[in-house]
Amino acid sequence: MTARKIIIDTDPGQDDAFAILLALASPAELDVLGITAVAGNVPLEFTQRNTRIICELAGKPDVKVYAGCDRPLTRKLVTAEHVHGKTGLDGPVMIEPTMPLQTQHAVDFIIETLRSEPAKSVTLCPLGPLTNIAMAFEKAPDIVARVQEIVLMGGGYFEQGNITPAAEFNIYVDPQAADIVFKSGVPLVVMPLDVTHRALTTPERVNAFRDIGTKVGETCAAWADFFERFDIEKYGSAGAPLHDPCVIAYLLNPALFKGRLINVMIETQSELTMGATVADWWGVSGRQANALFMRDIDAAGFFDLLTQRLARL
Ligand code: BDR
Ligand code: CA
């Protein structure tokens, strides 16, 4: 089996870190061509730095990391330090990375890669606001038809929103970008809150990270301990949702997830519901399906996979 080529687009964020580690721990299945950082959970200066910290933690300082857009296409940047801390990776003390940041802009890297790799051989994995991806599609429309698939974390239908009553954070931060991506015609797989709110870091699961007995295991447990304080208080749940690694887990084992191929549109007009993912779950709109919108996860299988792979680093 040849490894599937992916570009991870990310705004770390502790849960983004789990996703990146899961991908880097799975070289037989996934060939990470590059990781592009975007402003989201925290400003770009932190997300590009955090991405490099995570690669170094994984023992993969050769991974190419690019900085992309430092703000959404048209709106003011909204960040989430209240969840992820000031640096985005608060919790354990992390050392400054020494691996380089690539000089090329992330958007240009995405364009160049999609043009140089065989058509439909590269999958995009956005874990943050969709600014870099939309910018690349706007700047180089020829690349859109060359994308194999986009597997992203964003949106919510049954769970609605987390940053507003109607919208999930990644889509809310840059709804114009999300609108471009959802209308692009590229096959989409969406991991919404409906799925990720079922992937909870219970004490038992966090202990399993810690019990790996490595720096990676300890760090992951410490990250989970940090960010779950916010979600446990907010939702009264047994742990925090581990959103972004659902994207990578889907690439490794799609059978862990269940959903429907439906039409999904993005609200870009109403301030009240800005960034809502209008998901036609019941097929009432007559609009063409554009996304495999997930609803269910085998959470035990997901955490087993994640823990086993983290133990490889
Ligand atoms: C998404 O927003 C961020 O806070 C997380 O990293 C995740 O990508 C969840 O709404
Ligand atoms: Ca994220």
Please characterize this protein's 3D structure:
The chain is α/β, with parallel strands linked by helices. It has a single domain, classed as Alpha-Beta Complex (Inosine-uridine Nucleoside N-ribohydrolase, Chain A), CATH 3.90.245.10. Helices cover 37% and strands 17% of the residues. It has helices at 14-24, 44-57, 81-84, 106-116, 131-139, 169-173, 175-182, 193-196, 203-211, 215-235, 245-252, 299-310, and strands at residues 4-10, 30-37, 65-67, 122-126, 147-153, 188-191, 257-262, 264-266, 277-279, 291-297. An eight-stranded mixed sheet has the order 3-2-1-4-5-6-10-7, with helices on both faces. A two-stranded antiparallel ribbon has the order 8-9. Helix 2 (44-57) links the parallel strand 2 (30-37) and strand 3. Helix 1 runs antiparallel to helix 10 (215-235), helix 1 runs parallel beside helix 11 (245-252) and helix 4 packs across helix 5. The longest helix is centred in the last third of the chain and has 21 residues, at 215-235. The protein is globular. The two termini are 21 Å apart. The mean pLDDT is 97.
